[in-house]
Amino acid sequence: MSERKAIFITGGGSGIGRAIALKFADEGWFVGLGDIDQAGMDETLSLIENGFTFAHKFDVRDREAWDHALDGFATASGGRIDVLANNAGIPLGGSLMENSTAEIERCLDINLKGVLFGAQAAYPHLKKTAPGSCLLNTASAAGIYGTPGASVYSATKFGVRAITESLDGEWAEDGINVRSIMPSFIDTPLLDHTPNAQSNEGIRQRVKDAGLEITPVVEVAQAAWDAVHGDKLHTTVGKTAKRIAFGSRWMPGRVRKQTRQSARPLGQ
């Protein structure tokens, strides 16, 4: 087995996945990328200078494809996977009644099934490099308190939080760490999407109109590094996420009131 540690990152073609890839590459790790966006992965790879890279185009909703991706990466990395960053995910905003059946199913499948399938596929690899190996799931501030105008997305991120907590218990005896990062609004291309098919205003503008801060993506990469190497189960990233976490724990009534008074929920 190679001595160089290895991380495989889904959604590695842009945004948070790319930032995590660059951070771990800078620290000397072998970096593997998974994404449906081949061009995006190629661009990420072009930014990594150490040459220890791998990319595999696949859909996280396909359980069998997960095995092909991780087996291929383990072979390329010298027989080891120390971290799986379960990062692939999509946004979905707007009121529940605006969301189509297809949009709801796609969000649930990618954000929840993709994480569960990734955990299943990664387990034997992480067990081999334990103790100290890690399953790192990308959750969200929307997984701390439900976000008006994003009920489906919030449900998936609460699910990712639950998966993290469940597997933290299940895998402890195997020496596999399970962690999550919970970012708020991060400066990535996802903010430039529209919340749903019926909307024509980008998420970024809605965030600005609401007076919320947009956190630099490099802060998420550092949080991912700290989560992998620390003992905190959930790591919040950005001022909004930290405020929500504090408020939901210590002032739940106030958070509920503020949530209900939201004049125009994000995504509408």
Low-confidence stretches: 199-211, 263-268
CATH H-tier superfamily: NAD(P)-binding Rossmann-like Domain
- Which oligomerization state do the chains in this entry correspond to? single chain
**What's the structural domain tally?**
1
Q: What percent of residues adopt helix (DSSP H or I)? A: 40-55%
Q: Order of helices and strands, N to C?
A: EHEHEHEHEHEHHEHH
How far apart are the termini?
51 Å
Structural class: alpha/beta
Give the count of helical stretches: 9
Radius of gyration: 18 Å
Shape: globular
Q: Strand order, biggest sheet?
A: 3-2-1-4-5-6-7
In what range is the share of β-strand residues?
A: 5-15%
SS elements, strand count: 7
Mean of pLDDT: 87
Topology:
Elements: E1 6-10, H1 15-26, E2 30-35, H2 38-46, E3 53-57, H3 63-76, E4 83-86, H4 101-129, E5 134-138, H5 151-170, E6 177-183, H6 203-209, H7 217-229, E7 234-237, H8 239-250, H9 252-260
Overview of the molecule:
The chain is α/β, with parallel strands linked by helices and 268 residues long. It has one domain (6-260): NAD(P)-binding Rossmann-like Domain (Rossmann fold, 3-Layer(aba) Sandwich), CATH 3.40.50. Helix content is 47%, strand content 13%. The chain contains nine helices and seven strands, in the order βαβαβαβαβαβααβαα. It has helices at residues 15-26, 38-46, 63-76, 101-129, 151-170, 203-209, 217-229, 239-250, 252-260, and strands at 6-10, 30-35, 53-57, 83-86, 134-138, 177-183, 234-237. Strands 3-2-1-4-5-6-7 form a seven-stranded parallel β-sheet, with helices on both faces. α4 (101-129) links the parallel β4 (83-86) and β5 (134-138). α4 packs parallel to α5. Mean pLDDT is 87; it is low at 199-211 and 263-268.
